[in-house]
From TrEMBL, chains A, B:
Belongs to the ComB family. It holds the Pfam family 2-ph_phosp. It comes from the Bacteria. It catalyses: (2R)-O-phospho-3-sulfolactate + H2O = (2R)-3-sulfolactate + phosphate. GO terms for molecular function: 2-phosphosulfolactate phosphatase activity; magnesium ion binding; sulfopyruvate decarboxylase activity. Keywords: Hydrolase, Magnesium. PANTHER family: 2-PHOSPHOSULFOLACTATE PHOSPHATASE-RELATED. This is Probable 2-phosphosulfolactate phosphatase. Its cofactor is Mg(2+). It comes from Echinicola strongylocentroti. Transmembrane segments: none annotated. Its EC number is 3.1.3.71. InterPro entries: ComB-like, ComB-like_sf.
Length: 240, 240
């Protein structure tokens, strides 16, 4: 039986052996939720870039550049980090380059050694789970956290994914046991529970309540988002 | 109102500002539970030492040396890491030097900048909480984990301490919110819940079921264990 582990922060990823495994990167508020939404809305590809300068330079190459630091659109960027910006196919067929406080760094740190890197969100939880079951490889769920610290929303997503996969995968890592239990306890009051958390509080301060609601929507989309080369692309499950 | 934070692994402690704060180090299975038990059983002092060689060298200075790596007594050491070894005042008035896989390193990493370092265990949870309330300083609960990884028993202790302190301290760190919720969910089936966890499984393999039961006993002792200079000593609450 294949196994699932959870890595609760990119500061701990060096403790995990990623060789031959599928890494699922999650940054619920909001990087990976926004990326999945962009791909659902016909964006051609999304290239995660760890640094602000490197991302800015992508504009010259014909990319739309999206940049966020500390929850705000970074200076000189065309787009911030809201999933709602991508609705109604607003950037159809465009190539996006994106840098965020936590999510893009976490993707960068996941690439080394992993067999595949996916990004995950509540928005495509079931599709991601179905794909992982198909592939039959060990899985590491890599939570972006907040500046290296544990955060609640990414860990709850990890718990939700373990919950869905529990019949198909073994999990004996303590993080997986803890977060599965916490998700099962709070799956029906996820938003209320998260409203205590520090990151949700930060987001409320920026008046993005609507983003939070959107990011917590379960299974709105039925594809996976996968890193191919340097860019994330949409992969429909039936053509996997 | 003073605040509590949780640090889930010594690999994350650099993200916390310890200045002026009281750090409570916890390694439930078994370092800090064993230290508290030793002090309750009239050991004079316990000096945590991060390395095996440095600890061995303490024998020359008249210390009883205790050494554990990966759950087993380390070669050449007089004592391992079982709290039961210290019962019945077996080492009354002795000075102990101890090195363990996770706990002693975590104490070492806590000393820098902190106003005070305590060690915590379920065995003296209420006494530790009472002391923290008296002191009126911010608190960081520093979980030893397992080789840098999150572990369940230390995190549940952290959640238990936040639970007891919740009326007296603020807590807006996500780790504190998560672990308090998880402890509240499982406080009445703590041993069953932990029996799923990787570290408890490791301990079961070493036939130390009795150690587990002992380490999960709540409020058996009513003193705090505090680092004074290089050594942990027993401090009775009434004379604080």
């Amino acid at each position: 039986m294949n196994k699932i582990e959870i890595c609760l922060s990119p500061e701990l990823i060096h403790l995990h052996d990623l060789k031959g495994k599928i890494v699922v990167v999650v940054d619920i508020f909001r990087a990976t939720s926004t990326m999945v939404t962009g791909l659902a809305n016909k964006v051609k590809s999304i290239t995660p870039v760890a640094g602000l300068e490197a991302c800015r330079a992508m504009k010259e190459k014909g990319y739309i550049i999206a940049g966020e630091r500390n929850g705000q659109t970074a200076a000189g960027f065309e787009l911030g980090n809201s999933p709602l910006s991508y609705l109604n196919n607003a950037f159809e067929d465009k190539k996006i380059a994106v840098t965020t406080t936590n999510g893009t760094l976490t993707i960068e740190k996941s690439k080394k050694d992993a067999a595949e890197v996916l990004i995950g969100a509540f928005l495509n939880l079931k599709a991601t789970a179905d794909y992982l079951i198909q592939q039959g490889k060990d899985v590491v769920i890599h939570c972006a956290g907040w500046k290296g610290m544990f955060n609640l929303e990414d860990s709850l997503y990890a718990g939700a994914l373990v919950n869905v996969l529990a019949g198909h995968f073994g999990y004996d890592c303590d993080g997986a046991i803890a977060m599965k239990a916490l998700y099962e306890q709070h799956q029906d009051d996820l938003k209320d529970f998260l409203s205590q958390a520090s990151h949700a509080k930060r987001l409320q301060n920026h008046n993005i309540e609507a983003d939070i609601d959107f990011c917590l929507t379960l299974d709105k989309f039925d594809f996976i988002a996968k890193l191919q080369g340097e860019a994330l692309v949409k992969v429909d499950l039936q053509v996997v």
